[in-house]
Amino acid sequence: MECVSEYKEKFRKLKEIQEKYGIDTAETENIISGIDTYRVNTPVVGNFSTGKSSMINAIIGKALLSVDITPETAVPTEIYYGNNKVYQYDKNAVIERKIEELPLKGLTVQTTDLVKIEYDNEFLKEIKTVNIVDLPGFDTSFELHNRAIDQYLPNSLAYLLVVSSDEPVLKESISDFLKELKVYNMPVYVVITKSSRLDDDELDECKKLLKKLVGKIVERDDVKVACVDSYGRVNVDELKDILREIQGQTGRIFVNKYSKALRAASMYTEVYLVERIDKACLSTSRLEQEQEKVEKKMNEISVDIDKEKNNFSRQAKVCINTIRERIKGDLEATLPTISAMLENGTDITDKINSVVRRSVRIGINTEFEPKLKKYVEHISEMITIEFPENDIIINNVNATLKNNVVDEVTKTALPVILAGVGLVLAPVAAVIGGMVGVAADVIHNISSNKKKQKEVDKAARAIIDEVTEQTIISIEGEINKYIDGINQKIERDVLKQKAILEKSLSDIKIDISIEENNRSRDIESLEQDLKVIRAFRNDNLVQED
């Protein structure tokens, strides 16, 4: 993408100006280092043994992924364009492997979290900012469903749902997954594998059926369906066209991401330059008065922010209690289903996982996010320093700060909190398993159907109570952690604003001792740099679809 080199140059210029005036460049340097590795995810999801790995091998034209796997050996794998390197992320170490060692054998989800493959391939180069993610089948473990959403959704452009022509249906786990994607308005493409097993009429009916089923869940009538023949004559042309379409959208996402970053990164540099220019003619005594003014205002802001924090902390506790009641109520509503599953010896973890995630998602959306948004808006409004000479600039700074933080909050709160809840559901599953085992032993030894039903219901209620308590402990921890992160960001922004204003005033004091001619040249240089920075701050976003 041409925009990559364009934005790298913009950030390099920003860094150059920051270095010129002794402004901290750490944030700008981090952004520059991240531009080269920018990619968007395209997770490939579906049930186990639908041919996902074979399909990806066919796209690449080389058997990099193992197709002879079991649910226990199915490890998430990322594939993207690069210099033929393989990284195996085990629980306690990162192992670099050779490309010749692929496909890797003997890996297990118990010991390996992830494999990353950088491969020099003509087609991958064509879609070089797309990261294809091969995820194990959803029916392998509910944890994989959580990971597919929590870990990959925040930086994804679309999901590829793979369905085998052998079984063109949507199981409950897939339906639940699609419902979550709908909440995030995430596009879904459907890919039918093993398509050569159907004749033309059968394949046409299969495509219409899946388009209707998926479209109904995600509430879209434009769901695209592609076919892949991974047996005999391999044909992945339709799928490649989909990936090219996704690649075509990455430029828009890149520009929006780095345009916002450029505005934020240049914000305080602009304040510094404006202050230097506006106050260049003030006396030393007036500058000292301005410094006292900054100090006083910042102290007042800190006191007001502490009050707002305490108020929001109380609101968060109310939100958590409300979410607790929602989780318990929703689980109790499924009591007949859970009881029946227990009595029949059916695994209930997927069902409970689905109910809990839905309850948490709705609770966060309706209870927590609106209050969090108002809190951030109130805090941002407090961070206002009124100086007659630069009211407009300071207001611009705060408007940008407010918009950036509020946008970040609304986009990240739910996925981040759900990720933490997903982690706690794994040990909860073990607890459920133990409780189910005990219940099964008791039920087995009861001959009376009435007594048996009573024990089944008792066991189901005990499981509901345990899941509710464990989940709410996790939610409380994740919400508080998220709030701490927001508060730390706000505090950093306040300190940065104070530091940049104090630095500008301090540097102006030094300017006073400079001869008039030299000072004029300095102001001219400041104005030239300010013009560059303001161009960055007016960097245009690409219109979202």
What is this entry, summarized?
The protein is of the alpha/beta class and 545 residues long.
Low-pLDDT residue spans? 385-394
Q: Looking across the biggest beta sheet, what order are the strands in?
A: 4-3-5-2-6-1-7-8-9
Straight-line N-to-C gap: 20 Å
Give the ordered list of helices and strands. Answer: HHEHEEEEHEHEHEHEHHHHHHH
Number of strands: 9
Q: Please bin the fraction of helical residues.
A: 55-70%
Main structural class: alpha/beta
| Radius of gyration from CA coordinates | 28 Å
Question: What fraction strand?
Answer: 5-15%
Largest sheet, if any? 9 strands, mixed
Query: Quick check: average pLDDT?
Result: 82
**Distinct helical segment count:** 14
Question: Given the C-alpha coordinates, what overall shape results?
Answer: globular
Can you characterise this structure?
It is a single chain. The chain is α/β, with parallel strands linked by helices and 545 residues long. Helices cover 66% and strands 9% of the residues. It has a nine-stranded mixed sheet, sandwiched between helices. Helix 7 (200-218) links the parallel strand 8 (188-193) and strand 9. Helix 1 packs antiparallel against helix 2 and helix 11 runs parallel beside helix 13. The two termini are 20 Å apart. Mean pLDDT is 82; it is low at 385-394.
